[in-house]
Amino acid sequence: MKRILLLLLFMMLLPFAEKAYAKNTVIQVNEEATVFDNRSGSLVPVGTLSAEQTFEVTKDYGANWWQIRWGGYYGYVDKRYTTVVPVTTYKNTVPTTVKIKDYIVATSDAPIYDNTGDELVQFATLAEGVRFPIYSRMGNWYGITVNGRLGFVHSKFVKEETGQDPINTKPEKPTNPTNPTNPTNPTEKPTPPPSKQNGYIEALENVTLYDFRREKPMAIATLMKGQQLEVVDAQDPTYVKVRWGKSYIYAEKSKVKFINTPAYKNMGKDNAMKNEYLIPISANSEIYDYTAKPLKPFAKLDLNRRYPILRKEGSWYVTVLGGREGYIHSSKVALDRGVPVMMYHHFLKEDELGRFKNVSTTMTDVQFTKEMQFLKSMKYETVSADELLRFMRDEITLPAYSIVLTFDDGLLSTREYAYPVLKENGFKATQFLITYRNENSKDDQIFNYNDLQSLSRQDMTNMQDVYTYGSHTYNLHDLVGNKGKMLLIPYHEVAQDLQRSLSYIPEAKAFAYPFGQYNANIINAVKEAGFTMAFSTALGYNNPYDDVYQIKRLSSNQTTTFEQFQKMVLPYAQ
Questions:
Q1: Which of 150, 168, 264, 410 shows the smallest number of beta carbons within 10 Å?
Q2: Alpha helices of 456-519 — where are they, by DSSP H?
C-alpha cells in the first residue's frame, strides 16, 4: 500500500518536474545567434541574441534548435551557437505580463539593452522591419519583453504603431514540432540555417567603408582591392552591411562582388571587443592578416578615427573589421584617452582684466582666439552635447579629433569675445545658464568689463547659430562657506529650482553642477527633472559607457600655456 501511494505521488509530481526542468534550462550564447520566426512557413530572421548573454528556453526543440519567446510568438535559435549553463546571469526578469495595445517597428537594426547594472548592456537586437509589442515607456526609450527579460530600445531606432499584430496576437505552437524549418511538411528533414547566411564580399577596387549613424557619413576604413569581408546583410540596393565592433559599416555594392567561400583564415569576433580604442598616428596605417606569410595588409585605417581593440600581442595591437582580425604595430598607433570637454567662463582683453587678473575663471580674448585657431588648424570637430551623449552610450563613434566646448554661467563676455571667434572658425558650443540672471537681463545691454553681466533672451536668440543652452540651475549658483547652496537645501527645493530653470529653457537636456559640487541626491534630482546628461568639473576625458551624469571636463585659464593646451586636447597622451 505504501509503495502504491509513493507511485501515485510521483505521478502527480511528474508534470511539475517536467515544467521545472523546462523553466530552468538555461543557454549561454557563444557568438551572436540569429533568432528565426517560422510562422510564415519558412525561417525569417527577426533579431539576434548577443554573445555571452544567458537566456531561459521554453523548449528543447530537437537536435538542432532551442525555442524561446519572442514578442507575442516563438523564436528559434540554432543550438550550435549556444552552451547549456547552470543559471542565468541577468536581473532584468519581467515578473508580470500586461495587456499589449501598441507596437514598435524597427526602422534599422535596434539594440536592446539591459539597464539593471551600472551601465547599459546590449543583450539582443531587433531586426529591421520587425514588429514588437511595447511593454512600457520611459522617456525616449521603449521597454519590451524578450524571452522574459525586460529590455529597452531607443526611440531613434524604431517607430510606434497602434493596434494588433497582423500576423499573430498570441503565442502559437509551431505546425510541426520536429521541423521548425518547414512546418508545413512533416516528412522533410530540418534544414539548419547556414552559418554564413549572406556570404562574403570581395573588393573590385579600393573600397571605402562608411558609418551612417551620424548625420553625415563617416569614412571608417578602406578595404583593399581583392580583399574580402564577411557580409551581415545585403538587402539594401546600394550598400552591403558588414560588422565593425558592436556596430556596422557599409560598402558600395557596385564596387564589390559576392563570393561564397573566403580565401582568408584570420577570422575574428567583432562583438568581442573591449572598451578600449586605438588611434592611428602614422600614414602607414594598414592592418595586416597575420595568418598570411609574408604579412599582407587587407585594409587601411583612417588617421582621424578611433578603433576598438580586441587584444595586444607583443608589439602588435589587434582590431577586427568585417569578421577579420587585423594587426597593426604599436609604433603606428596611440591609445585613445577619450573625448575632451573644455570648460570656459569669462573673457576680457588684457587691459580690461583689473580685479579679474589671475582669476581662474577668466582668460584673455587673445588666448582664447589662439586656442580656437589651433583647434581649427588641427581639423578638430566641435561636437554637440547631444552627440557626446550618444558617443558615451556607444550609439555612435566620433572622430579622434573631436572636442566639446562648454561655457558656464551664461556671461555677456561670451557674446563680446567668444561668439565671434567661434563663428569665424565654424565651431559650436554649449552655454550653461543660471537662468534667474538671464531672465532679469535687459536686451541691448552695453558690455561693461568691470562687471559680471549675463546674457539676455535676445542675446541667446541672436547667437543660437553657435550656442545651444543648458542649465546651471535657476538660482542655486551660490556658496555658503565652501559648500554650494544646492547641497544644503531640501531635495524638493532643488527639484523646484530645476523645473523653474527648465521653464526658461525648456529645450535644455544638459546640466552643469554649480562649482562642480554634487552627490547622489543631486544626481537623482537632475535625472528626475528630465536632464539626460550632467557635467562636472572633475578632470579627465570621456569614453563609451562612462557615467553620463558625471561627465569630466578640462579647463584653460590665464596661467595655462599654449603648449599645455595643445597637449591637453590631443586625443592621446604624448
A1: 168
A2: 457-462, 491-504
The overall pTM is greater than 0.85: no
Does residue 574 sit in helix, strand or coil? coil
Rounded Cα distance between 399 and 571, Å, is 10
State how far the Cα of 232 lies from the Cα of 199, in Å rounded to an integer. Answer: 8
What is the helix, strand, coil percentage profile of the chain, to 5? 20, 35, 45
The grid cell for 344 is 570656459
Burial of 168 (0-12, 13-18, 19+ CB in 10 A): middle
Q: What span, in angstroms and rounded, lies between the C-alpha atoms of 173 and 194?
A: 24
- pLDDT tens digit at each of 574 positions of the chain: 444 444 344 344 333 333 333 346 899 999 889 999 888 777 889 999 999 999 999 888 877 889 999 988 889 998 988 999 999 999 888 764 455 568 899 998 999 999 887 778 999 999 999 999 988 877 778 889 998 898 999 989 999 887 654 444 333 333 333 333 333 333 333 333 333 446 899 999 999 999 999 988 999 999 999 999 999 998 888 999 999 988 999 999 999 999 999 999 999 887 788 889 999 999 999 999 999 888 999 999 999 999 999 999 999 999 999 999 999 999 999 999 999 999 999 999 999 999 999 999 999 999 999 999 999 999 999 999 999 999 999 999 999 999 999 999 999 999 999 999 999 999 999 999 999 999 999 998 999 999 999 999 999 999 999 999 999 999 999 999 999 999 999 999 999 999 999 999 999 999 999 999 999 999 999 999 999 999 999 999 999 999 999 999 999 999 999 999 999 999 998 8
**Residue 278 and residue 328: Cα distance in Å, rounded?**
10
- Which regions of 437-567 does DSSP assign to beta strands (E)? 467-471, 479-480, 483-484, 510-512, 533-535, 554-555
